[in-house]
Amino acid sequence: MFSQSQQNRLIYPLLFIMPVFMSSNIIIGRYGIEQTEPWTLAFLRWFLAFLILVPIAYRQLPPALPTIKANLKLLLFMAFLGMWICGALVYLALKNTSATNGTLIYSAAPVFIMLIEWVFRGRRMSPRELIGIALALIGVAIIVTKGSLANLISLELSWGDLVFGVCTLSWATYSVLIRQRSLQEIPVFVLFATLAGFGALLLFPFAIAEMIWVAPIPTTPEAWGSIAGVTIVASVLAFSTYQYGIKMVGASIAGLFMYLLPPYGVLMAVVFLGEKLALFHLAGFLPIMAGLVLATLPAAAFQILGRRRA
User: Fold this and answer.
1) Taking Cα atoms as reference points, which of 74, 140, 148, 142 lies closest to residue 112?
2) Which domain holds residue 64?
3) What is the C-alpha to C-alpha distance for residues 179 and 255, in angstroms, rounded to an integer?
4) Total structural domains in the chain?
């Protein structure tokens, strides 16, 4: 075990690596769907993640069971959003679009979270946040239309990009729901294991149908390598390192490292998948990142920057 001082030294290097785990799902998934069908890949991902998490979470499960039963419908709906839509549909979308496009569209999730909280929870928006949201949405529009107004007018849009937009909205809704007070009594790993299990349950009939009518369960080492990657790296490691970061330095600081998701994801798409960057990627990336910083960076950070300039 690491001592407290060793943990303190390790936490920031770990937080720099954490976005790699987070963004790896789209990269590994893009490779994985060449070997495995979308619903099969999503089901195996969350079923295997559930099996890994159960030994970690089972000791904390009995006290949490009453809360889980009281929130059963909510948890099933969240599993549908986070594991069914943001699992199978992400992999389906990758059959029609690039990992670079998917990464950049997905990176706008924080502004969708703010919009959902504004619409359904009456969250107040500052002018800075509104400008940030507008910039991020403009960036997403540039990616989806490939920077062409003609594509928008003629509706010649990639359905994969549009599905990624739906998945981004779904993930934002999931992220808002997971903050519900009624779920805060459930230990972190118990909650994650529960959602993984429910997600696998919802995906199971679709995966079976896919195995019967589309393609059987994969048997090649390459396919199972990608399945292991999305299970261990993009699910268990991504979640665990993020939760550990929150525990060690707090949600506000850990959240800042999420700004690394788009550049990490795009870099991995170029290096590992051989994807080419187009001018519209840069044209979309810049307003998305500027919008994310404006909309989500704590106001205190802007105050500090202002004092330094003065």
Assistant:
1) 140
2) 27-298
3) 15
4) 1
The beta strands (E) that lie in 47-88 are given as none
Tell me how far apart the alpha carbons of residues 126 and 245 are, in angstroms, rounded to a whole number: 28
Q: List all residues 6 or more positions away from 108 whose beta carbon is below 8 Å from its beta carbon.
A: 136, 137, 139, 140, 168, 288, 291, 292
- How far is CA 166 from each of CA 93, 104, 173, 257, rounded to the nearest angstrom? 10, 14, 11, 24
Of 226, 206, 216, 212, the C-alpha closest to 45 is 226
Residue 304 lies in a domain: no
Q: What is the pLDDT of residues 182-214, one digit of tens each?
A: 888 898 899 999 999 999 999 999 999 999 999
Predicted confidence (pLDDT) per residue in 212-258, tens digit: 999 999 999 999 999 999 999 999 998 888 877 777 777 656 767 77
